[in-house]
Each structure stands twice: as C-alpha cells, then as structure tokens.
Known about the structure:
By secondary structure, the protein is of the alpha/beta class. The chain is built from six helices and ten strands. It has helices at residues 40-47, 70-80, 96-106, 113-122, 138-150, 168-185, and strands at residues 2-12, 15-18, 22-24, 29-33, 55-60, 63-64, 81-84, 156-160, 188-193, 204-207. The strands form two sheets. Strands 1, 2, 3, 5 and 6 form a five-stranded antiparallel beta sheet that branches. A five-stranded parallel beta sheet has the order 7-8-9-4-10, sandwiched between helices.
Amino acid sequence: MLQIKGLKHSYDAKRDISYPDWEVNQGNHSIILGNSGCGKTTLLHLIGGLMPPKSGLLQVAGQDLASFSNAKLDRFRGENIGIVFQKPHLVRSLSVKENLMLSQYLGKKKTDAKRVEQVLNHLGIQELSNRKIHEISQGQAQRVSIARAVINSPKLLLADEPTASLDDENCQKVIDLLKSQAEETGATLIVATHDHRVKSEFQNQLPL
C-alpha cells in the first residue's frame, strides 16, 4: 500500500526534512510517532498527496504520486484516500448529511443517501444528519470528520493527531473507532501522533 525511500521535503532552501524508508502493507494499521515539529503532519500530507516531495520515492497503492498532474492527483485522492485532519474543516453552512454527500461528489462517486445514513449509523451520530455544523459539538464534529474520511470507502485512511486533546477514555474510543472504520472498508490506517498512549495499539511504527 505504501512505500517510502529516500523521501525529503523542504519548506525553504535552508532546511530539508528527511524521512526513514518505510513500508506499510494493505490493511495494516500503522503509526507515525514523534514530538511536535518533527515532521509528522508533513509526512501525512505527503502521503495524502496534499503536497509534493522534494525528492525520493513515495508510492501509494503502487502509484508514484509525484508523477501525477494536479487533476489526476485530485481524482486519485478522492477515490482512494480519506483524511481526518487535526481540525474538522467541515463546511459550516451545510448539514452533516450534505457535507458527506459533498465528499461523495468531490470524490467522483455517486451521491448515495443510503451510504451516508449507513456510515452515520455505524458511528452512532445518525441523529445529527440534518444539523448544520455550527449546531454540533467539537466531539461530534470529530466523528463527522471520520465519517467524511470513510464515506467513499478509501483504500488508505490517514488521521492526524486524532487523540491529542482527549482524555484517556475518549482517546481509546477514537482509536477503536478509526480501527473499526478502517476494517469496515478494508482500508489501511495510518495515524500520526505524539500521543504515546496509543503506541501499543499499533505494531508497525515509524518513530521520527
């Protein structure tokens, strides 16, 4: 599913971020561990095709993302990758259901209200379907962002610091939720975090 070799990224000419070689097999739950500022989020964004690497090999599902045009990369990401960002980035003027249907549309999928209902039911937030984003809590918004990430049944599910601000009980619930959703869709799950409470949950680990 994921292969990284000699990967580098640079925000300016003065400093490169170099990443260790790493492989993740399809269906494997993996974690990127490191302190704030070490490049975890950057690596997750590189894997998600949100920014190009400076050099090195980065293959996702056998595809070299650096070789894609912007249009092809957008299409590939919409069809194959789901991302749970640190902040939800949901469209506040739309309802929860409309946010998920927008993701289907942007992912070149048929808008499917039954699929939306199924995902919301599975996450225990079906009662939020018609609420606008500004009408739900932060915890509910996090679940909606997970729903958005899995709505198109991605092959790769990425989560950036999903437990950073949570207590122990809710930390475990979110990790269990991400794992169950990945297993539901047959996705490979990669979590980037500095939260060592979840370290034991993942056998494949990349320390930065």
